[in-house]
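For reproducibility, we list the full input for the zinc ion complex.
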Amino acid sequence: MLIWGFRWKTLSLGQIAYICSQCSRSTVHTAIVERGRLTIFFIPLIPIGSRYRIVCNLCGLRLRAAGDLEEQLRGLERTGQLEPRTGPIADKTGVWGR
Ligand SMILES: [Zn+2]
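The corresponding predicted structure, in tokenized form, follows.
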């Protein structure tokens, strides 16, 4: 019998300050990346992808990074620098859950 499953690891990329769409305050958000792997007999073997998220440090709102913001967070992961944004972050995210 083969025992398989998934394991997600969360890494913090950095802090981003902007106005939260839920608590309407200018607060610091944490940019995180979640990396998934397929496990076989509890050993993580095959990478299955990355998910980029933004979490409000005040109210805990979790947003999925999409489009331009996802590209910016990939850049932040590579270089440690956040590129200048062209618009508010809230326009480029979707509510994912809390
Ligand atoms: Zn908030």
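The radius of gyration is 15 Å. Residues 94-98 have pLDDT under 50 and may be disordered. Both points were considered when choosing residues for closer inspection.
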